[in-house]
Structure formats: C-alpha cells, structure tokens
Amino acid sequence: MKHVVSISLGSSERDHAVETEILGEKFLIERRGTDGDINKAIQLFKEMDGKVDAFGLGGIDLYIYAGQKRYTFRDAEKIIRHIRHTPVVDGSGLKNTLERKVVHYLAQEYGYDLKGKKVLMVCAVDRFGMAEALIEEGSDVTFGDMIFALGIPVPLKSIKSLNRLARVLCPVITKLPFKMLYPTGNRQKEESQERFNSFYEEADIIAGDFHYIRKYLPKDIHGKLILTNTVTSRDVEMLKSRGAWMLVTTTPNLNGRSFGTNVMEAVLVSLSDKKPAELTPADYDRLLDQIGFVPRIEILNPVQESQTIVL
Questions:
Q1: Which superkingdom does the taxonomy of this entry point to (predicted)?
Q2: What is the number of structural domains in the chain?
Q3: Which residues in the chain show pLDDT less than 50?
C-alpha cells in the first residue's frame, strides 16, 4: 500500500485519513495539521522521511510566481530543508494543469457558461492556471491579491497589472513570516470578518484558496458559485447555510472530504515513479486522464427563479 501524508500548518481539527484505490494501487492518504507550529511540522517531516511514499506540504506555499519568475517562501524552505529521502510537493506543480482543467471542464463539459461572468479571484499568484483559464473562457475577473493577502482594498483588473505588482512585492513578501500573509493554525477556525463585502456582492463566482475565501465571507452569498480547492463537511454546511448556489472543488471527494492540491500532487508523484522536478504538465495531464478525474460539483441551494444563471 502506498502511503501519502500531507503535513500542514493548518488546524489539526481538519485532519483526515482515507484508504482508497487509484489506478490499481491501494493508498493510505493522510492529512496532519500542526496548528501553525513550524517546529512541529519540521519534526513530523523528519520522523517520517523515508517511511512514506510522498509528502504534501500543506497550509503554506513553497513557491509563488510573477510571470515566469519563481519565488520561494523562506518559512516553507525552512520546513522541508532537512528532508533527504521522500519527495515533497506543495501542489504548485499540479495547480497549473489541474485547475485549468477544472475551469474548462466546468464550461465545456458541464455546460456552465463562464463568458461575461463576474469572478472574484481571491488570490491569483498561487493559482495562476485557474486565473488564466477563467480569462480564456471569457470571464470578467477581479484579482483580490492585495485585498486578501495584504488587507488593502485595491482590486486588480488585468493579468498585466497583477504581474507588475507581483514583481515588486514577491521578493519582499516571501521573506516575511507566512502567518502574516495567510491564516494558519487556530486562525483557520476564526469566524469570518465581514470586510470588503462589496467585492463579494458584485461577483457571480468566488474563486481561489478556501481560507482566503472564508476570511471575509459575508453572511449572505445567495446564488454564488464557489470554485475552490479543499473543504471539509463543516465548510460545506457553512456555505450552504449562507446561501451559496454551487460548490466546485478542484480535487475529488474522497469519503466526504476533498483533500488539498498538495495531496493530489503527492499521489500523482507516487504513481509516476519520477522525481517531482521531472514531471511535466503533460505528465500530470496524462495521469489525470488515466484516473478519469472529474471535479467535485455539488448544488448546495437550488437556483431561484429570479436569478439569471444559465447552464
């Protein structure tokens, strides 16, 4: 049995384990949160290095991109610095393939017309593939990187402006403590603050990392489509109670839970028998096709007659 473990800076209350079979291989897939404790994460990686088939690094990005240039988060590099035997991935290698695939599947296979839809993309520097695919499908995308990462209410309306800003900020923010930029540990359990409601209200679709989506989520999101990465059953109930229309997750539902992109990348790495650096977007695409991957799509609340959402 292959063993994949995601070690996350997120809350341990979101921990989960599942046994499943993928392409004829049996898997034990686990997620272990460290409640924001970097030293605990380092210790867990050291203890399991060489004893599992692949690691996912969760709750923190290893890399973000500005155009073609890649920047490494200092805190993430510190966590994985001592790993010697087991491959470790943070999901960034898969996001570009998987999340593009999900957006195009939603439009071309599921039949949801994305053209002209107003999208609030909460953070695009860590999900560039999703952002580009939404633009390719004709969506009107607002990039919320300044709003959700830095708390500055300045929306960006083009990839060019996002790239210009990223080239200036990425060298600086990747050196900061990651907890200043992203909710880790117990902060993931805090009640969402209702700030920047107008950006949510204007959107038909709220897209991107779930913890950023949840950070300022209004109590009323009736009729919204949520396009995100990983959610728990409690998250789904919260979205439903606030009136969200549809939930689409870019990772599949495994025993009621969608694991993070880092977990799915670790699964694909362990199936490929290649090193992560050797895997190309074409390799990921081929493996996803072999698995028969489709995104999780769930109607949370029926569309009201007064709404004009068209399938």
A1: Bacteria
A2: 2
A3: 305-311
Task: Please tell me the predicted confidence (pLDDT) of residue 187.
Answer: 59
Burial class, 24, CB count within 10 angstroms (exposed 0-12 / middle 13-18 / buried 19+): exposed
Q: Domain check: are 75 and 197 in the same one?
A: no
Q: What is the CA 154 to chain-centroid distance, rounded?
A: 22
Residue 33 lies inside a defined structural domain of this protein: yes
Shared domain for 208 and 236, answered yes or no, is: yes
Q: What is the pLDDT of residue 308?
A: 45
217-236 pLDDT, tens digit each: 999 999 999 999 888 889 99
Task: Let me know if residue 311 belongs to a domain.
Answer: no
Mark 256-266 as b/e (b = at least 16 C-beta within 10 Å): ebbbbbbbbbb
306: buried, middle or exposed (CB in 10 Å: 19+, 13-18, 0-12)? exposed
Task: With beta carbons less than 8 A apart as the criterion, state whether 263 and 3 touch.
Answer: no
Here the tokens at position 56 are 């996912």
Q: Which domain holds residue 79?
A: 2-91+258-291
Please state, in angstroms and rounded to a whole number, the distance separating the CA atoms of residues 81 and 77: 6
